[in-house]
Amino acid sequence: MAKEDRLKLLFEDDFSKLQNAKIILLGVGGVGSFCLDCLMRSGITDVTIVDFDTYDDSNQNRQMWSELHEDELKVEALKKHYPQVKIINKRIDEEWVWDFDFDEYDLVLDAIDDTRAKLAIAQKCHKKLISSFGGAKRIDAAQVKVDDIWKTYGDRFGSKIRYELRKRGFKKKFKVIFSSEEARVKEKGSFMGVTATFGLMMCSEAVKKLLKG
Question: Residues 149-164: what's their mean pLDDT?
Fold first, then answer.
């Protein structure tokens, strides 16, 4: 049985909504790389990924395929595994977000950690946005949750994002993946059990949103 057949058994006639979807994924690190793999295995093949970074030894505890591509650009390395993916090798900063045209995409998936860029993405793309807060410093995957931006808690980075959005007069809602677990360390120690869960939750939310149309 082909993988498409397994998916069709689950999604039935709605599977075409996934096959016809167009997604842009911002950031393909510990969260984004697992989200990408999940999207591609779910029948969503029109995916554009944006990242500027290269793989190094420090990525290998949490980023998919990183051990095979040290010193390679992430987007170019990932295209070797997912040939259908479209790539943009670019640092995602606030200026890039405001200049980029997101209109052609059904969903915008935000897996970056640049505060100003994240705020710009929320302001510009909230109607079709699924965003991720930080997955580092935690070990309990069971505490990873999904809710709208204003109901998130337990994350200092998320608190900063909410504060800055309020300062800008932003009151709209969008979905966020976050953890309610208290950070265990100050440094950015990370565990794939949690960061990968963030990515898979992001993919799940994307699928649900697409099925709802």
Answer: 95
